[in-house]
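Final report, closing paragraph on structural work. Over the funding period we assembled a curated collection of sequence-structure pairs, and we close with a single example.
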Amino acid sequence: MILIKSISRMKTRIIVNPESDRGKTANRWKKIKEALKYYLKEFKYEFTEKPLQAIELTRESIKEGFNFIVGVGGDGTLNEIANGFFEENKIINPEATMGIIPSGTGCDFIKSLNIPKKIKNALEIIKSGTPSLIDIGKVIFKDHFGKRIERYFLNVADFGLGGEVVKRVNEKRMERKASSYLKELIFTMLKYKNKRLRILVDGKKLPEDEYLIGAIANGKVFGGGMKIAPEARLNDGLFDFLIIKGFTFFEFLRHGWKVFLGTHLTHPKVNLIKGRKIQVECEESEKVLLELDGEQPGILPAEFEIVPLTFKVKTSSHFFEK
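Its predicted structure, as stored:
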C-alpha cells in the first residue's frame, strides 16, 4: 500500500456530467453544489456538453494549476477525467489527485475503492480522505474508423461479449430508455457467436481458441455489480485477466449468475491469469468490440499494459483492505 500523507493546498475543479445516470445528475447538481460549499472552502465547476469533453477540461484545469479534479458522474465520466491527467503518455502533474462524487447508473469503480455511493458519505472522503497511488491501465486499439488510439482505463476493459452488451446499454441510455447490463447481457447472449482469438500474456501464447469474453481487470467489479475479478487489487502492479471459453446459452443460464457472487473462477472454462501486458488479435473478417470503463470506443486488435502506482485518487485510508 502506498498512501500520500500530505499534499500541497488543494485547488479544486469539479467536472460534472449532467447527462450521467440518464440525466438525473443535472437534477441533483443543485443539492450537490450546496453540499460542496460545506465540505470545500473554494472550488470552480464545469459541465460537460459532449462526449470526451471531460478529457480536455481536465487537461486544461491541471495546466491552469488545479491539483484536485473531482468528477461528478459515472464510470465513463471518471474514465475521461483520468485520461485528462495524461498528455503524450506522461502524467501532467504527478501531484494532481482525482476525487469522486458518484452519480452514474453503475458506479462500479468506487466498489474497489470502498467509496460509498451515498453522496454525503462520498463528500466526507472528498474533504478528509487520503490521496493514494493506484495502478492504471493503458490500451492501444482501433477506433471504429480504423484509427490507432491510445487510452487509459481505471477499472475494467473487456472484449467480446462485454463490448456488445455495453454497446446496447449505451444505445438505450442515449434514448433515455430504461435498461440494465443484465437485461442486455441476456439478450446479447441469445445471438452472440464466440470469437476465435490469438492472445499473448507477458509474451506467452495462450491456446488459439473460441472465446466468449476476456476481461482485463484493474478493479474488481463491472457491469453494474458483477464481481468479474474478486481477487483484483488496485496497487499490485498486475492485471487480473479473466478469459472465458465459449459458453452455450444454456451453460450461461446455468453458471452466469455466479459472476455476481464472484464464485465463477472455479468453472473449467474460466481462466484467471495475472499479468502486466496482454495482446489480443482476432480474425481479419471478425469485428470484436472493446469496452473501457463502461464505454465502447473501438475494436480489436488491442494491447493492454499496466502502469503501476502512477495515478492518485482520494479515498478512505483503508480502501485496500479486502
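The longest helix spans residues 24-39. The chain has two domains: 12-134+310-315, 137-309. We thank the funder for supporting this effort.
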